Every structure is written in structure tokens, then in C-alpha cells.
Amino acid sequence: MGGAVKAALEGHGFRSFLAHEDLQVSEEWKQRILEELQQVDVFVALLSKSFVASRWCAQEVGFIVSRPDVLIIPISLDGTTPYGFISHLQGIRIREEYQIASLLEEVLFRRRPRLMIPKQIDKVRRAGSYRGAEALVRPLVPHFAKFSDDEVDAFAAAAAGNREVWDAGACRDEYIPEFVRTNRSRLSTARAAELREVINDLDLAP
Fold it and tell me: 100: number of CA atoms within 13 Å, CB side?
């Protein structure tokens, strides 16, 4: 499951660290792990009986809880529940690897939108197919109202600048109109003109 978590995070544009994959031969591993723990924004605890039995895992959790800015995501692999310093957190049991990506996406958008939104907008900008564009824009729709001014501008530019986005059915008919309704007052004249040029019937009236 650790590999699936790493792949899911990297798929969203995060640099991730998994000790048994990322440590190099002869590297001073304790120092490297400590350095990584000092830098992380998100800590995914894969809870299991082996995790509980590991003294190193317990020490890592103890270190992380001293950093209240870090988002801790407890995922149970075998029914083990959050314990000790993280016993106050709600965990979730995962039975199959395919569940990891959608779970992390939901939690990160809800708890760390400022991390997720810019990364997702960049993926929208680079979308390479209609269906792919729809899948990339869809998670952003519930968060349109939370966009910063810079994110409003970046999304409008991404949508207008990529035909795979503005010409995808759900994006053209639902998602982009919803974005405009939500953020019309914050759209610059230039960005509004770019959107109108590619979607002729888009309602940009104040």
C-alpha cells in the first residue's frame, strides 16, 4: 500500500518519501528520515499490527504530532485504529489499493485546498483529452468559491488556453459556466474575453 500512496501523491504533484524506496545504498537513513519529517506537509500513517509493533513508526508519529501544521491521514490496512498521540483522529480502513487515490484526493481537497487547487489547475492546463479534462476539472467544481484571485485567473487561463478543456462537453456546458457564475466579479476583462472567444454563448454579464 505504501507504493500506492506514493504514486497517488506524486500523481497530484507532491514530492513524496517512502523510506524503503527512496533511501540510497549507504545513506545515513536515520538522519534522512528526520530531515524528511521536518519538511513534510502531509503524513500518511498506514496503520497495521506491524505499524503498532514498530518502535520506529511510533517515534515518527511522536515527531510529527509536534508539528501541528502537518496534516496526518491515518489509513488502516487491517482494522488497526489510530492510537496514542493520534487516537483523536478519525481513520479509515482501506482494503484495496485502488481506493487510495480517491481517498487522498478527497481528504486533501477538503483539508488542504491551498495545496491542492494550484496543482490541479496546472493539471487542467496540461489536459490531453476531453475525458481527461472533465475528470481533472470535476474535483475543482465544489471549490470554485474558495479560489484565490490568482487561482481564478489561473483557472480561466487554463480553461481558455486548452481546447481539450473548453471543448469538452461537461466543461463547456456545466463546469466552466459554474466557474463563471461563482467568480464573475473576479474575472479580469482579458480573461473574460478569452473565455467568451472560445465559448460563444457563455454568460459573462455582471
Answer: 21
- In the block, cell 465544489 appears at 142
Cα 73 to Cα 121: distance, rounded to the nearest angstrom: 23
Spatial separation of the C-alpha atoms in residues 171 and 97, rounded to whole Å: 29
* Stated pTM of the model: 0.83
Instruction: Tell me phi and psi for residue 73, to 5 degrees.
Output: -115, 105
Spell out the CATH class of 2-111: alpha beta
Domain locations in the chain as residue ranges: 2-111, 114-198
pLDDT tens digits along 151-174 = 999 999 999 999 999 999 999 999
At which residue does the C-alpha cell 536515520 appear?
A: 30
| Residue 80 in this model has a pLDDT that exceeds 60 | yes
Edge-to-edge order in the sheet of strand 71-76: 42-47, 71-76, 92-93
Q: Which of 73-102 are b and which e, b meaning 16 or more Cβ less than 10 Å from the residue's Cβ?
A: bbbbbeebebeeebeeeebeebeeeeebbe
Q: Report, as an integer, the average pLDDT of 5-10.
A: 91
Bridge partner list, 43: 72
Q: Which three cell numbers stand for residue 195?
A: 473565455
